[in-house]
Write a structure and sequence with these properties.
This protein has three helices and three strands. The chain has 72 residues and is α+β, with helices and mostly antiparallel strands. Strands 1-3-2 form a three-stranded antiparallel sheet.
Amino acid sequence: MPYEYLREIAQTRLPITVDDEASIDKLRVLRAADLVSVMLPHPQSGIHHARVLAITSKGREVLATDQEPLLP
């Protein structure tokens, strides 16, 4: 789930590069919910990685409450 991935990201030192397509899809959801700041590849760009820059203040609030948010 994207929220579980957010918790995983919170345990790492940022920025990180992600090249797993399933993880990139989770990042798209987390970004849409304004929980992370991430540079995502355009689907037709030929780039196959994303760069997670930060967890947003909203993302940190969600992590602090330890309640899974309603994601888009």
